[in-house]
């Protein structure tokens, strides 16, 4: 299925020169939303997954759906100050600045098999930072799943050999 026709380009967002891939048009169509969730599930359906990690904020859209299908727990990675318990933090470079991610210290147990999910793999900075948090807690990253991959930005190269699957490639 050609999911690209359900993605809208927004030029110069969030800053001049960036072409933002807007997934709200895909999300608003129940049939396409369901098909996309099923395709993302197909990438890992044969794997034993203990936790699905969703990155703030659009990783929260498909992450819980994948967790339910995989009979796994869902764990959010959030921006600073959003999680109420003891957190582990990492600061990283973005294509247009820096940011910080946080994860509850007790959300992943050593040896748990983890699926990392986010909406877009661009330069790989956010996913790399999330992998650092997961691995620091002892999680084993089975795969990184993305709805969209901007291959021309070479984000996979930053993920240190982690398995990567993406539904839509640009």
Molecular structure report:
With 170 residues, this protein is an alpha/beta fold. It has a single domain (47-169), classed as Rossmann fold, CATH 3.40.50.2020. The chain has helices at 24-27, 30-42, 59-70, 125-136, and strands at residues 8-11, 19-22, 51-55, 73-77, 87-94, 97-104, 113-121, 140-149, 164-169. The strands form 3 sheets. Strands 4-3-7-8-9 form a 5-stranded parallel sheet, sandwiched between helices. Strands 1-2 form a two-stranded antiparallel ribbon. The model has no long low-confidence stretch (mean pLDDT 96).
Question: What is the secondary structure topology, with strand pairs?
Answer:
Layout: E1 8-11, E2 19-22, H1 24-27, H2 30-42, E3 51-55, H3 59-70, E4 73-77, E5 87-94, E6 97-104, E7 113-121, H4 125-136, E8 140-149, E9 164-169
Parallel strand pairs: 3-4, 3-7, 7-8, 8-9
Antiparallel strand pairs: 1-2, 5-6
> Architecture, CATH level 2?
3-Layer(aba) Sandwich
**Total beta strand runs:** 9
SS summary, helix count: 4
Give the structural class: alpha/beta
CATH topology tier name = Rossmann fold
- What percent strand? 25-35%
Catalytic activity: AMP + diphosphate = 5-phospho-alpha-D-ribose 1-diphosphate + adenine
Function: Catalyzes a salvage reaction resulting in the formation of AMP, that is energically less costly than de novo synthesis.
GO molecular function: adenine binding; adenine phosphoribosyltransferase activity; AMP binding
Pfam families: Pribosyltran (PF00156)
């Amino acid at each position: 299925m050609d999911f690209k026709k359900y993605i809208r380009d927004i030029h110069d967002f969030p800053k001049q020169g960036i072409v933002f891939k807007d997934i709200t048009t895909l999300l608003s169509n129940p049939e396409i939303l369901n098909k996309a969730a099923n395709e993302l599930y197909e990438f890992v359906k044969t794997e034993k997954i203990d936790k699905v990690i969703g990155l703030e904020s659009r990783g929260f859209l498909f992450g819980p759906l994948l967790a339910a299908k995989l009979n796994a727990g869902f764990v959010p990675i959030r921006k600073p100050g959003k999680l109420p318990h003891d957190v582990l933090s990492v600061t990283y470079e973005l294509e247009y600045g820096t940011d910080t991610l946080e994860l509850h210290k007790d959300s992943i147990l050593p040896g748990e098999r983890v699926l990392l999910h986010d909406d877009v793999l661009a330069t790989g900075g956010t996913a790399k930072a999330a992998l650092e948090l997961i691995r620091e807690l002892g999680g084993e990253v089975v795969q990184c799943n993305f709805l969209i991959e901007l291959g021309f930005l070479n984000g996979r190269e930053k993920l240190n050999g982690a398995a990567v699957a993406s539904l839509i490639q640009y």
